[in-house]
Write the structure tokens for this entry.
Amino acid sequence: MSSRLPTISSVAIDDLRPHEEYDRQILYEIALSLQTERVVRDPIIVDASSLMILDGTHRYWALRRMGCLSAPVAMYDYASSSIGVSRWDRCIASPAIFLPNRKIRVEYSNEMEALAAIMDRKASLAIIGLSGSQLLVEEGFEIHRAYSLLSELETELRAKGCGISYATEEDSFLRLKKGEFSWVIVPPAIKKDEALEAALSGRLFPIKSTRHIIPSRPINLRIPIGWLMDPPETVNSKLQDLLSRLSFRRVRAGAILGGRRYEEEVYIGEPSNP
């Protein structure tokens, strides 16, 4: 196994700490996929110290609901500067934006000023279109309130039949300029200490609140779900044997694998030649 890979192990599923909520439809689809394939392809990405989930929240909930006692994890030092955290922009296919019914101030701006206000946390959300930008400002910025406002806005838009997709900040503006949708909703990026506080307190952020960039991410391990019905001390010997029989092929950052674009380099597990 490559020396660049993180520690891959199994832990008690009850010890893992999500910092985001889950979406029922996504959870259903992932649980169905796991039940069909009977393997977990990718480990859940966690902070080694706190066991906060950095990526894999829906896999975690699906495994819990299936009765698993253990979960496969790749462990990282969350304090390391090699781990980045950014945001998910919301891409809106609608000619108009419908604001939620709460006390907010709307300010009109240009794109650069709007993005600067979000970065400096002078506004809760920015709504950016080709014809102009709006800032949604609440009295006294607070990160959970900003994401609560975002969640309300998404709910309102979906209720009116508007399509919403998620994209990185780079992809969202490229697609906006191509005319693929009408608006980009830009939330503030959540800081590491805010994500950790959410995990430890149980005051979770909505789905797609953080986008973690993880170095040397391992994927395609294909761990049998049957193993995970046992406690981690039983699973780990089997898991380490499985890992010893895999070779890892490095794929450079930016690759699209399984419909997902990875911003970091990934290591794909493949059976070693006998």
